[in-house]
Amino acid sequence: MKINKDQLAQKIIVDAIIFERMHNGLQIMKAAFEPSGTWNENEPITQYNGTGLVVSLLLQEDNRDLEDEIYNIFDKHLAADTIKPLEERETAGVLSKRIIAEILLKLKYTEANKKEVVS
Asked: How many angstroms separate the Cα of 83 from the Cα of each of 1, 78, 92?
């Protein structure tokens, strides 16, 4: 099975969504044991950055503004889904497709604007 970079980016975003949801759930569980938030023993890994991997995969040049926009797209969709009642939340696969579609649209729009400026 051959996979293109857009599909790979979408799969990375699925992992990032799942990781974020698990991390947030663990923080809630941890707070149940130590409401003051001072218990740091056995802290789970919290540095997975799927969105950063997607940025590296899809951006061909250093562009801090566009990088920030990609992070914002991910955060916006995840936050919007998180505030929904549990039974109305989207699966990570569905949510990731929505996120990658917006990211790819943004990249396409940015590239089109760049060509327009050069012309």
From this structure: 36, 9, 15
Residue-wise pLDDT tens digits, 14-53: 999 999 998 888 777 777 777 665 655 555 556 678 999 9
For 89, residues 6+ apart whose C-beta sits below 8 A from its C-beta are 81, 82
Give the Cα separation of 81 and 84 in Å (integer): 5
Residue 106: the pLDDT is 94
pLDDT score of 59 more than 70? yes
Please give, one letter per residue, the 3-state secondary structure of the chain: CCCCHHHHHHHHHHHHHHHHHHHHHHHHHHHHHCCCCCCCCCCCCCCCCHHHHHHHHHCCCCCHHHHHHHHHHHHHHHHHHHCCCHHHCCCHHHHHHHHHHHHHHHHHHHHHHHHHHHC
**pLDDT above 90 (res 70):** yes
Amino acid at site 95:
L
